[in-house]
Every structure is written in C-alpha cells, then in structure tokens.
Amino acid sequence: MTDNSRERYLLIVDDEESIRTVLSIYFKKEGFQVDTAGNLSEAEEKISSRVYDVVITDMRMSGHEDGLSVLRRVKETHPETEVIVMTAYGSIENAVQAMQEGAFNYVTKPVENRALKMQVERALERKDIATENVALREEIKKKLSYEFIIGSSEPMVKIFELIEKIAPTRANVLIMGESGTGKELVARAIHHRSERNKRPFVEINCAAIPESLLESELFGHVKGAFTGAINNKRGLFEIASGGTLFLDEIGEMPLSLQGKLLRAIQEKAFRRVGGNDLIRVDVRVISATKRDLKEQVEAGTFRDDLYYRLNVVSLTVPPLRERKADIPLLAHHFLNKYAIEMGKGIRKISPEAMRLLLRYDFPGNVRELENIIERAVILETKDQITPESLPESLKDGGRDDVSLGQFLSEGVSLDEVVGEIEKNFLLKALEMTGGNKTEAAKLLKISFRSLRYRLEKYGID
C-alpha cells in the first residue's frame, strides 16, 4: 500500500511533446504533482530543484541523450527516487541494462496509461517500504547503541542510565574498568550529554607521557622554562577550559605531580611551568583507571585527597565476560565496519564461529574482540566468518570447567543470560533483514509463528 497522506511528485522525461502532454494530463487527473522535461539538461534542472518520488523517462531521445543518462543522474542525486524506463520493443536490451543500473522497471511503447500507472504505484510501494526499513534500522540502532557505545545487556543499560544522571552535573567523574572495556567512550558520552558539549573534550594518557614532560603537557610552560622551551605553550588544562579534560590512566600519574593537579582542580587555577601568572580555568575533570586507586592510596602511591577530589561520582565499566549477551552485537558491528573498509562481501558470522566467540573470556575485552574480527575479515575467503579465520586461542581457550566454575561461583540466572542472547539475536536478525519478519525467521531457522511469539515475549515491536 502506498502512502496517500502526502503529495506525490512525478517527472516525465521525453523528447516528444505530445507524449509529455498526454502523460502529464493523465497523471495530474490521478492526483500526482507532475513536471516534464524534453531533454537531459531540462531533466537535470528539475532534479536539482526537487526530489521526485518517481521519474518516467524515454530510453531513446534525439541526439546522443538517452534514458540511461537520466537514470544515472537521478541515482547520483537522489538514490531513493524510483525510475521507470519507456522503450520501444526493439530496444529491450537497453531497458534491461537500465534495470541492472537501478531502474525499477521498464514498459514498452506504445504505453498504455493504466499499465504505466500500475508500475508507478508499485514503484511507490517499494520506495515506501525502503523508507520504512531505513527508519526501522535507525530505531534498532538507537536501541542497541548509546553515544557509540554498543550494548543492550543489563550491565550496559545500567551504565547508560548512570551516564544520563551524571552528564548534566558539574561533578568530576572517576571511570574504572579493565583495559579495553571502553572507558574513553563512556567519558566522551558524559561530555556529549552535558552542557559542555559545545566546548572541547581534551584527553591525555598519563601512562604514555614521560614524567618530565607530563607537567608541561597539562599546565603548559613559558619560554625558557627549560632546555627546548623556545616558545610559550598552552597546557591541556587551558585548552580544555569550558569543556572536559579526560585524564586516562590517572593511576599512573607520578606522586610528585599529583599535588599540583589537586591544586589546579580545587582552585580552578594554575601557573605554567616557569611562569608566575595565575591562569584561571573552568574545567570538568573525568578520570579513568584500570588500577585499584584505593589500594594505591593505602600503599602511599596515590594521594587520598586527590582520590576523593576525582571520585565525586564513580562508575565501573563491566568487562566483556560479564556482558556476553553483547558479543553478537559487537561482533557484527565490527564485521560491518571492517568489511566495508576492506571492500569485502562478508556480512555474516557462522553459528560455529559465534559459538567460539561466546565461549571465550576476552581478557582484552571489547578491544580484543575488535582485533579478532578485523583479523578474521582480512583472512576470510568465504562470504561469512568461519572458525578457520579465528585465532587458535579461541578454539583452545574457550571457557573450560574451571573458568565456568568461577563464573558460577557468585550465582547466575541462566534464564536471564539465555534470554539476553536470544533477544539480541532477534534484534540483529531484524536489523539485517530491514525489519522483514519473514526473512528474519528464515535467518534464525524458526517458524514465523515462533518468531512472532518471541518478539512479543521480549516486547520487540
């Protein structure tokens, strides 16, 4: 069924004025808004000024112009516009080529108006379905990701909810979690959802910069402050003023520098290295660490007053082994990313390969999963990721009885884990089929009735 709630725009391209006139009168009577063009340049002018639902073009026109040129220009400018080609009986080969290049269909001359109208209505139906599918895919994408953080498992939903509460405040935030869990993405999400999102998000990895340079990076220096300081330099605190400063791996910051960092945060002011002028800033500080800062405080390697100043609000990003329901979503996200980058037609992960991914504990977390999928896309020769393209560590290092025992030691809801995995497979199948439930059921190798029951079970519309 086509959407009759809005006006439909039709462009008719033909070098014969009589045909343009007859078709224009007919389709206007049928309720369409109709424009006409007698050649390619006129068609280009019309196409550049309006988005048409359907373009009807003659295949052969005077001179060197033809319907293929019109089709290509339409698809370059508005890929969603459907094109119907009119052709003489002897030029059907050209019409077939037009369909291979994206035309919806062709009709042979002499054209019967009612038959042409039927083709236009079918083209509109396909256009409407495609538009609905794009909207559905965007909606599913929103449900499965948050500020570029992908996941719909219960632990990640809790993280998203916490970000919503934290972001609007001015409080400093401490993000904890293992390497590769996505702490930087969480920091960026907090910044993007805050009132500071129009100002800079500035990051620095405290573990990646030598102690001798870290102070200058944070606070800047004046000319002549030390050998090599040939100009004044602004520090990251100054650059981030009005925005957010992200201190990654804060647990690696030298004790000798922690006092100056504390004063800068407390007083919202500092002096450049070698300078006397007090520079005032308005900076929100978000820190991240893979270390246990409480243990460092007890060991005397991290100042307790700095710890409490940074840890106004804290959150812990769960490791991937604690949110296994997100593995299929993440794996397919990385698959699509690298398949497009490398120009490879790999769109699926075989059930056997997915089982290996779900068994594995991912000590390197999301970053390790991304590396594994990137490697698999490089090595894979088939149209789907297979176990052969996965590293041996997945085949030999899946969850064994000991690690499974560790997993169960604190108790686990089997129904909840299985339910999360099932729900994510349902959502991914719908995403891959553009919301087509019949095709989704085929992908999942279940009946349509079973699919409908499961969608209702999880409240998936």
Question: What this model shows, in words?
Answer:
With 461 residues, the protein is of the alpha/beta class. The protein folds into three domains: 9-141, Response regulator (Rossmann fold, 3-Layer(aba) Sandwich), CATH 3.40.50; 149-318, 3-Layer(aba) Sandwich (Rossmann fold), CATH 3.40.50; 321-457, Helicase, Ruva Protein, domain 3 (Orthogonal Bundle), CATH 1.10.8. It is 49% helix and 15% strand. It contains 20 helices and 18 strands. It has helices at 17-29, 40-49, 67-77, 92-100, 113-144, 154-166, 183-192, 211-219, 236-239, 255-267, 293-299, 304-310, 327-342, 351-359, 365-379, 392-396, 401-408, 414-432, 437-444, 448-457, and strands at 9-13, 33-37, 54-58, 82-87, 105-108, 145-146, 149-150, 173-176, 201-205, 220-221, 233-234, 244-248, 269-271, 278-280, 284-289, 313-316, 348-349, 384-385. The strands form six sheets. It has a five-stranded parallel beta sheet with strand order 2-1-3-4-5, sandwiched between helices. A five-stranded parallel beta sheet has the order 9-12-15-8-16. Strands 6-7 form a two-stranded antiparallel ribbon. Strand 4, helix 4 and strand 5 form a beta-alpha-beta unit. The longest helix has 32 residues, at 113-144. The chain is elongated. Residues 399-404 have low confidence and may be disordered.
